[in-house]
Amino acid sequence: MRPSGRELNEMRAVSIETGFTKHAEGSCLIKIGDTHVLCTATIEDRVPPFIKGTGLGWVTAEYGMLPRATNTRMRREASSGKQGGRTVEIQRLIGRALRAGVDRVALGERQITVDCDVLQADGGTRCASITGGWVALRLAVNKLMKAGDVHIDPLMDPVSAVSCGIYAGQPVLDLDYPEDSEAGVDGNFIMTGSGKLIEVQMSAEGSLFSRDQMNQLMDLAAKGTTELAEMQKAACT
What SS3 class is residue 147? Predict the structure, then answer.
C-alpha cells in the first residue's frame, strides 16, 4: 500500500492554471499533488554569444525553491552569493529537456528563458518544472506566432517528465516525498507526447534493480507522460 493510498500506476492529482502572472509572455502554476511550481517564459530578442549570427534560437531555464517550500526553512541562495550544485544541475536538465522539443531554426534568433520557482515541494519538483515549463513555453510561442514573428511552429511535440521508482518492492508511478525518501530505486523520465525518450535518470538508492524492473518503470513513465501531455495540450487551448 502506498502512503497516499494510490494505485501503483496512479498519478497524483494534476492541475495547470495558465496565465498565472500578468507580465510574462507565458506562465502557469502547475500542481502535482502537493508539489506546486510557478513557471514563466520570457522572450528576448537576443541569443547567447556562442550562437549569435547562426539564425538559431535558444531555450534556457532557471530553477529555484522558496525558503519555505519545504518543512524547514532553506537559506536563499542569493544570500550565499552562488547557486548550489543541485540547483545548477536541475536547471540545466530543464533547459536541455525543453530544447529537445524545439525546432531552433523555426524559432529564429531569439531566446526564451523559462523560470521555474518551487512554491511548495513534495517530491518531483524537477519533473513538475519540466512539465509546467513546456506549458509556459507553448504560451509564449503562441504569442510569437499570433504576432507574425514566427511563421512555422517551433514546438515539435509536448515535453513532460515524471518520476518512477521501486517502493516497498513494487514499481510505482509519480513518487511523492514519503516514497521518494524511502525508495530503493528512483528514476526521472523525460519524454515527448509521441512517446520518445529525451532523458532518463535512474539510480539504485539502497537496492539493485533488474532489467525487467527497469522496463516496468519505463512502461509506468510512458503512461504518466502520456497523461501529462494530454493535460498540457488541454491547458494551452
Answer: coil
Supply the Cα-derived Rg of the chain in whole angstroms: 18
Do 192 and 157 contact (CB within 8 A), yes or no?
yes
- From the list 155, 156, 104, 132, the residue with the least C-alpha distance to 24 is 132
Residues 6 or more apart in contact with residue 203 via CB below 8 angstroms: 185, 186, 187
pLDDT in tens, 31-75: 999 999 999 999 999 999 999 999 999 999 999 999 999 999 999
Quickly state the pLDDT bin for 78 (edges 50, 70, 90): confident
The model carries a pTM of 0.96
Q: Which residues pair with 159 in a beta bridge?
A: 192
Q: HSE on the CB side for 6, CA within 13 Å?
A: 18
Q: Give per-residue burial for 43-53: e unless 16+ CB within 10 Å, then b.
A: beeebeeeeee
Kindly state the DSSP code that residue 136 receives in the 8-state scheme.
Answer: H
Of 69, 123, 65, 57, nearest to 95 by C-alpha is 57
Q: What single-letter DSSP state applies at residue 47?
A: -
Q: What confidence tens digit (pLDDT) does each residue in 10-24 have?
A: 999 999 999 999 999
79-114 tens-digit pLDDT: 888 889 999 999 999 999 999 999 999 999 999 999
Instruction: Give the integer Cα–Cα distance in Å for 62 and 115.
Output: 5
Rounded Cα distance between 144 and 49, Å, is 22
Helix then strand count (H, E) for the chain reads 6, 9
How far is Cα of residue 227 from the mean position of the Cα atoms in its chain?
14
Contact criterion met (CB below 8 Å) for 113 and 60: yes
